[in-house]
């Protein structure tokens, strides 16, 4: 392409500007990535004209060079304007980078004719596009009190949408006087609340919002704008800071109820929790109709509430069939240091657009105090420039906004909501503020942050600055602004609701008063029929195979499994674990209970026993037999989850707390991996009911059993769950047969109460020749918490028993096999299938069958300092008529040995010792 061709081309007109911007950006990133002709062109116009060559410069080329430099300047503001934006209310306290790309000199545009106009391309400008006007519009848009970070987004449509939305109105709203007065009222409430509590409850922790008061107009804007756009529910997850303020001034919790908590006047029925961990719910009236608000309960573990909230949102969306997220929104409020520092944030982001965990976009709000607890510098708290940089992993736009400009905060909130509603993706608002007091009200921040806090002490509050601004603009008088302070203080002192247009639900969470109501206060022990008719079992098992489309090519080995299951349903083969588990799901689906099963390999099953998802062998197609069990059935969802334990388990807990009529199951790939989610177990699953009255029917499948696979694939840490079991908080079961699993899962849903169910599932037993059942075990019976010895049935044989071995799980089959080999008639083996609630009476009933027993052996394959023994041995104190001992591996620091040979020797030794034949050689090994 020669100079004459350049002159004849019209590719610099407005119609081609977007294309030109895109290809020029590509050239700047990697010149070799564009066509050679474009490389030549950009290289030519990028060279500055020399004084000698000036008379020879082609005017058209010079004009085009200027145009491209202006386009590059516009692009620089879009990419880097946020770095120079006035987003920090502390002024220049924070480190700011130099941004030469925003200077005219960098683009050699400082000495051009001021009357020249340029094609601004896609940049929207309302005045003549001279360089001066373009720069003015760019600075008004990109470097005022909001910094927009969005050019990292890969989707061009999303970037163009944000550009049009931001640049058309210079990144601000034209608010009416009533709207501005409303913001002042909200700031007055935010500040007045903290001042009132600070004086009334001196020295008590409240983790106040001082310095971040703009959070209240932010949330109020989100709620009321969301209501206009059709939202019906908003679920919020947040940590401590500002929580009490949000409860009172957003969720309309009565002030008197909060005062009672400060004064220690709480219901002693439950253990309860501190006031800044509690949640609440209410209905708020908006122009678009009522919006139900929920603030999730959460502990001190900072970001762990984020995936819990996401699970709750997904459950609410599924219940409403809200496939686009138009009705239910999740809002996650973070701290700056926690957002950057907690790995669960990344895990939660990673789930954002996945099939099983997407919630159609979450609005993230970072209360950016610019300090993490007492961290001295940013370099100590993170390795990124912004605390929000982790959000770029999912191409989320990020709006950095100065917390001392509440109108900019409101604008950023509206923009974030519109983006979420438009694209159903996550978006982040970085509310840059400060912490006027310390980490808590007893903390002295000057010890570690003297310079920062000398600046903070000199600053007027956000409310004071805004009131002065409105008074100067004639929107409100100073006397009127001060009158708002007295009006709010009076309202607060009266102990009532400080929010307008709301209907609150206090006490139990809203869900417990609606579809959870039937599960509240139910007795612990409930008889329930879990068996199924033979005809029903046969019909279901036959349909699993016959329902597969004729052209669906199933893997040959999987086809044999399905054929075997059909034979099991006809009674032609013993029933194995995979059949029993799938049958439990199928029958519940027919009865109207949804089933949600997630885990890292749960479609197939880590040990290839489940085969809930069939894969076409030549096409990318799947067939899920359990979705076609009956003509009319509930929804079955199976998800091979992201490679996460903490966030995924927290998500499933949140889902289960919001939906009582879905069997929600999380399966660990190996039980050992549950270590990665221990905070969810400790802070939510085991204690959520006692702390927050949150009922939950979540089921955890934890593959467990010492089988010679080493320390990391043996133990699901049974001892930890037994230790946590108290106050009727959960079920802990170790089923030893397929039928027991079938009845246990059905019992979980058919009983009229909801408790977490922890199941230690087998590995080798999935195909053990003795771990099978007949059809009659499914057509009759129920889940048995204690299983008596099935080899010793007549009275005389039971009276001959002198040693009773009590055990759980896989070791039963090792004991049974060895006893049969030795032909021992004086040893009975009893299985404890439920460790908690401990079946004391059922065990007493079984022990009465053995009146001549001299010794009761608790046999476990785990080391003596692990497993169930230390958590249940006190249960045997009443057995003073018989010697009670434990047989196990010796105490160990790790769960198991790494050598298969050593494992087998140890297993042989403990089995023989439990049977009364101590093997000194094996024990020594």
UniProtKB/TrEMBL annotation:
<protein>
    <recommendedName>
        <fullName>2-oxoglutarate dehydrogenase E1 component</fullName>
        <ecNumber>1.2.4.2</ecNumber>
    </recommendedName>
</protein>
<dbReference type="GO" id="GO:0045252">
    <property type="term" value="C:oxoglutarate dehydrogenase complex"/>
</dbReference>
<dbReference type="GO" id="GO:0030976">
    <property type="term" value="F:thiamine pyrophosphate binding"/>
</dbReference>
<dbReference type="InterPro" id="IPR005475">
    <property type="entry name" value="Transketolase-like_Pyr-bd"/>
</dbReference>
<keyword id="KW-0786">Thiamine pyrophosphate</keyword>
<comment type="subunit">
    <text>Homodimer. Part of the 2-oxoglutarate dehydrogenase (OGDH) complex composed of E1 (2-oxoglutarate dehydrogenase), E2 (dihydrolipoamide succinyltransferase) and E3 (dihydrolipoamide dehydrogenase); the complex contains multiple copies of the three enzymatic components (E1, E2 and E3).</text>
</comment>
<dbReference type="InterPro" id="IPR031717">
    <property type="entry name" value="ODO-1/KGD_C"/>
</dbReference>
<dbReference type="InterPro" id="IPR029061">
    <property type="entry name" value="THDP-binding"/>
</dbReference>
<dbReference type="GO" id="GO:0006099">
    <property type="term" value="P:tricarboxylic acid cycle"/>
</dbReference>
<comment type="function">
    <text>E1 component of the 2-oxoglutarate dehydrogenase (OGDH) complex which catalyzes the decarboxylation of 2-oxoglutarate, the first step in the conversion of 2-oxoglutarate to succinyl-CoA and CO(2).</text>
</comment>
<dbReference type="Pfam" id="PF00676">
    <property type="entry name" value="E1_dh"/>
</dbReference>
<dbReference type="InterPro" id="IPR042179">
    <property type="entry name" value="KGD_C_sf"/>
</dbReference>
<feature type="domain" description="Transketolase-like pyrimidine-binding">
    <location>
        <begin position="575"/>
        <end position="768"/>
    </location>
</feature>
<dbReference type="GO" id="GO:0006096">
    <property type="term" value="P:glycolytic process"/>
</dbReference>
<dbReference type="Pfam" id="PF02779">
    <property type="entry name" value="Transket_pyr"/>
</dbReference>
<dbReference type="Pfam" id="PF16078">
    <property type="entry name" value="2-oxogl_dehyd_N"/>
</dbReference>
<dbReference type="GO" id="GO:0005829">
    <property type="term" value="C:cytosol"/>
</dbReference>
<comment type="similarity">
    <text>Belongs to the alpha-ketoglutarate dehydrogenase family.</text>
</comment>
<dbReference type="Pfam" id="PF16870">
    <property type="entry name" value="OxoGdeHyase_C"/>
</dbReference>
<dbReference type="InterPro" id="IPR011603">
    <property type="entry name" value="2oxoglutarate_DH_E1"/>
</dbReference>
<dbReference type="GO" id="GO:0004591">
    <property type="term" value="F:oxoglutarate dehydrogenase (succinyl-transferring) activity"/>
</dbReference>
<dbReference type="InterPro" id="IPR032106">
    <property type="entry name" value="2-oxogl_dehyd_N"/>
</dbReference>
<keyword id="KW-0324">Glycolysis</keyword>
<dbReference type="InterPro" id="IPR001017">
    <property type="entry name" value="DH_E1"/>
</dbReference>
<keyword id="KW-0560">Oxidoreductase</keyword>
């Amino acid at each position: 392409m020669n100079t004459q061709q350049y002159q004849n081309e019209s590719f610099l007109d407005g119609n081609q500007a977007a294309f030109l911007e895109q290809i020029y950006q590509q050239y700047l990133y990697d010149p070799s990535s564009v066509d050679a002709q474009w490389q030549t062109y950009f290289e030519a116009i990028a060279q500055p004209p020399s004084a000698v060559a000036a008379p020879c410069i082609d005017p058209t080329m010079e004009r085009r060079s200027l145009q491209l430099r202006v386009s590059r300047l516009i692009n620089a503001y879009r990419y880097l304007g946020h770095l120079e934006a006035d987003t920090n209310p502390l002024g220049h306290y924070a480190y700011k980078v130099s941004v030469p790309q925003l200077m005219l000199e960098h683009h050699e545009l400082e000495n051009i004719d001021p009357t020249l106009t340029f094609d601004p391309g896609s940049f929207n400008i309302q005045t003549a596009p001279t360089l001066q006007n373009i720069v003015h519009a760019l600075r008004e848009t990109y470097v005022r009190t909001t910094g927009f970070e969005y050019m990292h987004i890969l989707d061009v449509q999303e970037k163009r949408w944000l550009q049009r939305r931001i640049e058309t109105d210079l990144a601000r709203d034209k608010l009416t006087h009533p709207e501005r007065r409303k913001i002042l009222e909200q700031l007055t409430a935010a500040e007045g609340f903290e001042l009132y509590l600070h004086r009334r409850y001196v020295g008590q922790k409240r983790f106040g919002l001082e310095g971040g008061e703009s959070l209240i107009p932010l949330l109020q804007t989100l709620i009321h704008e969301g209501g206009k756009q059709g939202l019906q529910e908003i679920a919020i997850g947040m940590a401590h800071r500002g929580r009490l303020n949000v409860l009172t001034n957003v969720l309309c919790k009565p002030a008197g109820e909060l005062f009672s908590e400060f004064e220690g006047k709480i219901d002693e029925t439950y253990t309860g929790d501190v006031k800044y961990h509690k949640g609440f719910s209410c209905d708020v009236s908006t122009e678009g109709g009522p919006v139900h608000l929920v603030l999730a309960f959460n502990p001190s573990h900072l970001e762990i509430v984020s995936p819990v909230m996401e699970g709750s949102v997904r459950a609410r969306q599924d219940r409403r069939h809200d496939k686009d997220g138009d009705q239910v929104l999740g809002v996650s409020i973070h701290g700056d240091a926690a957002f950057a520092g907690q790995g669960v944030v990344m895990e939660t982001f990673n789930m954002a657009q996945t099939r099983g965990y997407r919630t159609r976009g979450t609005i993230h709000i970072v209360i950016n105090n610019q300090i993490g607890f007492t961290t001295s510098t940013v370099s100590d708290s993170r390795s990124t420039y912004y605390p929000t940089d982790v959000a770029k992993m999912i191409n989320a736009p990020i709006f950095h906004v100065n917390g001392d400009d509440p109108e900019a905060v409101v604008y950023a909130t509206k923009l974030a909501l519109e983006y979420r509603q438009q694209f159903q993706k996550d978006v982040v608002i970085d509310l840059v503020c400060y912490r006027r007091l310390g980490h808590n009200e007893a903390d002295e921040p000057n010890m570690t942050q003297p310079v920062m806090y000398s600046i903070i002490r000199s600053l007027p509050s956000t409310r004071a600055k805004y009131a002065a601004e409105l008074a100067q603009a004639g929107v409100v008088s100073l006397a009127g602004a001060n009158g708002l302070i007295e009006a709010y203080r009076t309202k607060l002192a009266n102990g009532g609701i400080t929010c307008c247009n709301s209907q609150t639900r206090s006490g139990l969470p809203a869900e417990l008063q609606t579809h959870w109501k039937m599960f509240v206060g139910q007795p612990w022990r409930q008889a329930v029929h879990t068996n199924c008719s033979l005809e029903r079992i046969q019909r279901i098992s036959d349909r699993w195979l016959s329902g597969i489309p004729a052209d669906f090519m199933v893997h040959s080995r999987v086809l044999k499994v399905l054929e075997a299951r059909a034979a099991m349903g006809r009674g032609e083969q013993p029933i194995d674990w995979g059949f029993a588990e799938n049958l439990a799901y199928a029958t519940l689906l027919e009865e109207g209970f949804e089933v949600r099963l997630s885990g890292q390999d749960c479609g197939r099953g880590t040990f290839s026993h489940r085969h809930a998802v069939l894969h076409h062998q030549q096409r990318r197609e799947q067939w899920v037999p359990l979705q076609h069990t009956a003509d009319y059935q509930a929804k079955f969802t199976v998800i091979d989850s992201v490679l996460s334990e903490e966030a995924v388990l927290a998500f499933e807990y949140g889902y289960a707390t919001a939906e009582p009529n879905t069997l929600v199951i999380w399966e660990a790939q190996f039980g050992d991996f549950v270590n990665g989610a221990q905070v969810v177990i400790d802070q939510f699953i085991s204690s959520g009911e006692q702390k927050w009255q949150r009922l939950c029917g979540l089921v955890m499948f934890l593959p467990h059993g010492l089988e010679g696979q080493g320390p990391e694939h043996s133990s699901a840490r049974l001892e930890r769950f037994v230790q946590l079991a108290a106050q009727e908080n959960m079920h802990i079961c170790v089923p030893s047969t397929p039928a027991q699993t079938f009845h246990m899962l059905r019992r979980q849903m058919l009983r009229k109460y909801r408790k977490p169910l922890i199941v230690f599932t087998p590995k080798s037993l999935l195909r053990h020749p003795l771990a099978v059942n007949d059809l009659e075990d499914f057509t009759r019976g129920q889940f048995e918490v204690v299983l008596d010895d099935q080899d010793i049935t007549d009275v005389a044989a039971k009276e001959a028993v002198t040693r009773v071995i009590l055990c759980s799980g896989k070791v039963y089959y090792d004991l049974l096999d060895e006893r049969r080999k030795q032909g021992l008639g004086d040893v009975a083996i009893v299985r404890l299938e439920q460790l908690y609630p401990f079946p004391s009476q059922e065990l007493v009933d079984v022990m009465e069958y053995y009146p001549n027993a001299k010794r009761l052996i608790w046999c476990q394959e785990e080391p003596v300092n692990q497993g169930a023994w230390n958590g249940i041995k006190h249960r045997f104190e009443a057995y003073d008529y018989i010697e009670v001992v434990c047989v196990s591996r010796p105490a160990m620091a790790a769960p198991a040995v790494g050598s298969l040979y050593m494992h087998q020797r140890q297993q042989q030794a403990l089995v023989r010792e439990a049977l009364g034949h101590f093997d000194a050689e094996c024990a020594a090994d």
